[in-house]
Amino acid sequence: MRGTLYFARSCPPCILALVILFTVAVSGERSVITLTNNGYSGILIAIGSDVPEDSTIITNIQDYFTEASKALFTATNRRSYFKDITILVPKTWTMTASPATTESFDRANVIIDKANPIYGDSPYVKQGSTCGKPGERMHLTPKFVSDRTYSETTFGHIGDPCAAMNLARSSMEAQRRHGGRFDRTQDDYFIEASKALFTATNRRSYFKDITILVPKTWTMTASPATTESFDRANVIIDKANPIYGDSPYVKQGSTCGKPGERMHLTPKFVSDRTYSETTFGHIGSIEATRCNGGIGGRPIQGFKGARPGYPCNKDPVTGLYQKECVLYPDFSTKEKTSIMFYHFLQSVTTFCGNSPDSEAIDHNTEAPNRQNRLCEGKSVWEVILEHPDFSNGSNPAVSWDNENFNTTPSFTVVKEVERRYVLILDVSGSMNNTLDREVCFYTIVGN
């Protein structure tokens, strides 16, 4: 089956940005990548013609993608790895290599070329505009690939992600999260939520009156319902959802501005204050946008131009942290997800789950990020599983009987060659007509 590498915008070598692999439809303009028996073949990495010859680039490409293949195998629950990779070097390089055949710089899936004026030496891929749509090819720079000291200091050691401390490039939005404060009753929760809403909307809205409908089986004294019913409720407190568990959730609308369906809370979330505050935080508190929500830490100033490492201040009107703030994570965390978030944490090895095929059922559906916005709250792993490469049982996990499965790719280095053009002119009787010859010539040369 066909697939394509669909990377995160910033790709640190800790998994070589693990080149986060979303398997989606292949563009005919790129080298065709296929997935067979769990192995991706046909990956083409090309070095730009302006890049000076440096054998270190070849060596480090092989090292980076060998580690990336191993990490990919773990992240996809033993369902995929990089089987073979071709490296195309410029024709100006003097090193010995087999001549390229169909390989060209324009068809490469990954390019090593001069720095982009906007991103500098940071790895990047321009993202697709819709969920599941592939991005364009990955762009690495000669400095990023060859200068391992720079790469590891800035983005993290490929074999020791805990060394990556580049918080300035890990974007984090502070958000007000109306989660888990249930002191004595539901009334307390919505009293505090109303106060937080009033602040968040710049004093333009709050909850004026709320009706709570209890089951007829309860023995408590309450006025009889008139038009109220469970089916008409805006917020329900009911048994846990098989996917979301005790996490509060609202199924989002599919387009911008479209309201979601009613909010779902569980009895445990509402009644168990210790669980709620430990897991989701105090109502009205500021939470970092992250996935998963179990990764703790503290806010610091981290963006370029700010004072790295300095404490963050809150806006006196909105109560939110200043925009330069990022989350300095707790490096002792044991959370396994998500490599789409803080990939450099030692324990992080896989994608967020929320699917039967994942051990981690912990996607943060509340995070106001592109993943939730474009994919209607679906986790990365859910989106991956929708592609034919993995759907309907395709490429099932490699058996644990083969515990030491070899994920090391085979590498082939080829050198760009001068293009040769052949012009064929039919001089037979059928081409005596001048117009026919002109049409034929245009068809061969013009197209």
TrEMBL record:
Q: Where is the signal peptide?
A: 1-28
| UniProt keyword annotation of Transit peptide present | no
Positions of transmembrane segments:
none
**Which residue range or ranges hold the Calcium-activated chloride channel N-terminal domain?**
33-156, 188-283, 285-393
- Record-linked Pfam families: CLCA
Record keywords, A-Z: Signal
Q: Which domain of life is it from?
A: Eukaryota
Tell me what this protein is called: Calcium-activated chloride channel regulator 1-like
Q: State the species of origin.
A: Lingula anatina (Brachiopod)
Phylogenetic classification of the source organism: Eukaryota, Metazoa, Spiralia, Lophotrochozoa, Brachiopoda
